[in-house]
Amino acid sequence: MNILNRAIQFRAALFLLGLALLSPVSAQAHDVYLAAQSFTQTLPDGVQVEMWGYAEANADFSVIGAPTSPGPVIRVPEGDSVLNIHLRNDLAVPSSVIVPSLNGGALAPVRDGSGRVVSFAAEAAPAGGMMTYSYDARPGTFLYQSGTHVQIQVQMGLVGAVVQNFAAGQIYEGQAEGSFDNEALLVYSEIDPVIHDAITAGEYGPGKMITSTIDYRPRYFLINGEPAPLAEPIWDHAATAGERVLVRFVNAGLKIHAPLVHGIWGDLLSQDGFPAPFPQETYSILLGAGQTADFAFDSMEMGSIPIFDRRCYLVNAAMKDGGLYASLEIGEGTGTHAQPLSFDKTASRRDGLTKKVKPLSRTLLKMEKTRLTPFSGKRLTR
Questions:
Q1: N or C: which end of the chain has fewer CB within 10 A?
Q2: Domains and CATH numbers, the chain
Q3: pLDDT per position as a tens digit, 206-226
């Protein structure tokens, strides 16, 4: 009898265990609270423009930080499968938030009275309207942006980056090249001061001074909200030689850009958060408007590694030596990938990482003699 009872209890326990295993696991969600606001930015030549940006807030929006463009980096914890973005819109026009490479987000076209689509997602009303957008999170690097009047609100500054890793020190599952010790983020954006001024003055739209962005001509080119020489990568921590560095590129501009990592060969791991089955060894990446890319390399020795745009957006209006230029500063270290100088011509291309790089003015001198200016189309002759 005791044996029979034990057998029944054992089978019941197995049955309950099976039910537990078959029951759906609750998704882990990451909640972010953003306020869309305006602010004024002063550029290196003294020009001031009105920008729109995102400010980080607490859950009830009783505490709100300063707005920035790009907005706060959204770092989704490893393993979380849902991203909830709670938006409060403090602008004078409707707005929304979309993450183009992630599923979800209440994507439903919003149309005006004529049937024209004005937003890709449900909008938060102006002057304090609230809206929540839920997305299926996955590892990678992504752009978040306004989904309303994209041609205007994106270049006014309503952009930011979403990042998530598969595990600590590993961006994608099963991708050996995707392991890293440190990471840097570079968000590219642009400013056309004529359009910004027209929007601020209420002179943008049909029948007004600026009717559309068809003549969009940016004069300022920014990395993480600042043009060179103020542009800086956003690091996880101070880089040291010997670390494998993951560089996350986000093109939040409306132009195509082509960042070049000078003197470095690395692995192009992914684009738009989709890992490559066979990462390409390269030193330059083509980024379309709204596109992202993940690039990793081994920092073999200390030094300054320039990153600049091969399309020559390297000016601040009429000022040279600006725009899309930044440096990865690598400090002294003895990590896994550190090694002494090697100039053996028979060595692999990765040994070339140890070469010293030149300052911006010297690095770009020859290129400037033949390059095209980004907005005049005239060839410089120096």
A1: N
A2: 29-164 (2.60.40.420), 183-370 (2.60.40.420)
A3: 888 888 888 899 999 999 999
